[in-house]
Prior knowledge:
This protein is mainly beta. It has 2 domains: 4-37, no CATH class; 54-167, Jelly Rolls (Sandwich). Helix content is 10%, strand content 42%. It is elongated and about 85 Å long. The mean pLDDT is 83.
Amino acid sequence: MPEITTITSESLQAEVRRLLPSQRGFGTDLEAQNVIVPIVDLTPTAEGSALREDLQTAASLTGITTQSRIGNATGRTTVVNTPGFYKYACSMNVASSPTVDTFNTRLEIQNGTDIKPIHRISNIVSSSGGFDFELFEGVVFLATGDELKIGNKGTGTAISCSAWQIADLNGNLINPPDFSFE
Length: 182
């Protein structure tokens, strides 16, 4: 025989109101029953008309932008500059020097006046030689006017960075370019 029990939890009721705004004001308490009730998932992901979130952030051949800088170049190179959210993957390489400690590579966000570093590696002064190699991955948000840039300084440096947009300026996830449901 089914039993129905009233649940009086303000935190659960608040969560229902937050997740189901159209249900505000309907009913006073949540109820539970000891009968198994099947649930039908009617979300776009379940029906196959929306891509899962983890797949929406995938890189694709036409959606990825890659920039590299090698050697004694000066300045910075823009990787992407369209507003939105981007996933990135960078490799940085800096050789050591017996006398100079100014070799470096960097990934940064710049808006024309401000520069904020995200990742940076610098060489060490060492007579034995060697190099420092690092891989970095992450997600950045670019506001209007922001640019994701890479830079390097010194002959013993190299940096390569790939970035692809995963969401627009408002945070709406974007499917990888060239993806379509069949």
